[in-house]
Amino acid sequence: MAGGDGVYRALLRAANAFLQQRRYRAALAVIKGFRNGAVYGAKIRAPHALVMTFLFKSGSLREKLRAIAQATYAHSRNLAYFVFTYKGLMAAQSRLQGKKIPFHAFLAACIGGWLVFGENNPINSQIIMYLLSRILFGLSRLAVEKGYIPQPKQDPFPIVAALVWGTVLWLFEYHRETLQPSLQSSMTYLYEDSEVWHDLSDFLLYNKRTDSK
Questions:
Q1: pLDDT, tens digit, for every residue of 97-154?
Q2: Closest Cα to residue 197, out of 211, 182, 209, 185?
Q3: Which residues neighbour 193 within 8 Å (Cβ) at sequence distance 6 or greater?
Q4: Distance (Å, rounded) from C-alpha 43 to C-alpha 176?
Q5: Could you count the other beta carbons within 10 Å of the beta carbon of residue 74?
Q6: How far apart are the C-alpha atoms of 48 and 45, rounded to whole Å?
Q7: Which of 7, 74, 81 has its CA nearest to residue 45?
Q8: For residues 203 and 14, what is the distance between their CA atoms, to the nearest angstrom?
Q9: How far is 100 from 16, CA to CA, in rounded Å?
Q10: 7-39 b/e (C-beta count within 10 Å ≥ 16 → b)
Q11: Residue 41: Cβ within 10 Å count
Q12: CB contact set of 189 (below 8 Å; sequence gap of 6+)
């Protein structure tokens, strides 16, 4: 027993010593990035899939749990692959040119995005739309910071909020098919299902009646 414990401690010391070697740092960062991508993707997708599945999807409990597991796995896998690809390409470019330049990040991410997120499916679509909204805000702030557009005298956020909500509800009411299915489901629940009821049960307790009354 004591001998086994000694071997374990020796292996642990050797592994920790290996992790501290600078020559392997870039490769190890790629592996750690893969790990972090998988964990983060699972943490983000699992609760979202849980809520959306039980709120809006029909089917048995087994089918719902399978759908949650599949969505979580897909998100976790894609994010892990992307981080692995991005960090690997970043390390390769830096090694080839002897330094890191801003274009490296753009090129590595473009290749990773094409390879990992290029398929048009619900998971990738949600991720791309999430990033797109952040990019628009980021580019707007960068344009002000660089002086390409003047600093607003008043906070423009109220106008942005008004235009975003005005546009999305107009699309929902008159061009619903252009919106993502999960957004259509959310808006149907909020703005259409709230106009239908039969008695107190589906007015306050439930969204829709499940009996045959």
A1: 989 899 999 999 999 999 999 999 989 998 999 999 999 999 999 999 999 999 999 9
A2: 209
A3: 207, 208
A4: 30
A5: 17
A6: 5
A7: 74
A8: 65
A9: 27
A10: eeeeeeeeeeeeeeeeeeeeeeebeebbeebbe
A11: 24
A12: 55, 56, 207
**Structural domain count, the chain:** 1
Contact assessment for residue 109 and residue 81, using Cβ atoms and an 8 Å cutoff: no
- For 179, phi then psi, to 5°, come to -90, 155
What are 51's two structure tokens? 């809520």
- Return contacts of 38-41, CB within 8 angstroms, 24+ apart: 38/76, 38/77, 38/79, 38/80, 39/76, 40/79, 41/72, 41/75, 41/76, 41/77, 41/78, 41/79, 41/80
| Residue 105 located in a structural domain | yes
Judge contact between 76 and 42, C-beta under 8 A: yes
Query: Which range of residues forms the domain containing residue 82?
Result: 16-118
**Within-domain flag for 110:** yes
Model confidence pLDDT, tens digit, residues 175-195: 999 998 888 988 998 998 888
Residue 36 lies in a domain: yes
Q: Is residue 112 part of a domain?
A: yes
